Amino acid sequence: MRSLVVYESMYGNTHLLADHIAEGLRVHGEVSVVSVADATDEDVASADLVVVGGPTHAHGMTSATSRKSAVDAAAKSDGTLHLDAAAAGPGLRDWFDELGPVVDKRAAAFDTRIDTTAILTGRASRGISHRLSKRGFTMVSHPESFLVDRHSSLLEGESDRATKWGEELGHQYQWPPVADDPDFHEGVGRTP
Ligand SMILES: Cc1cc2nc3c(=O)[nH]c(=O)nc-3n(C[C@H](O)[C@H](O)[C@H](O)COP(=O)(O)O)c2cc1C
Question: How many CA atoms lie within 13 A of 128 on its CB side?
Answer without folding.
Answer: 35
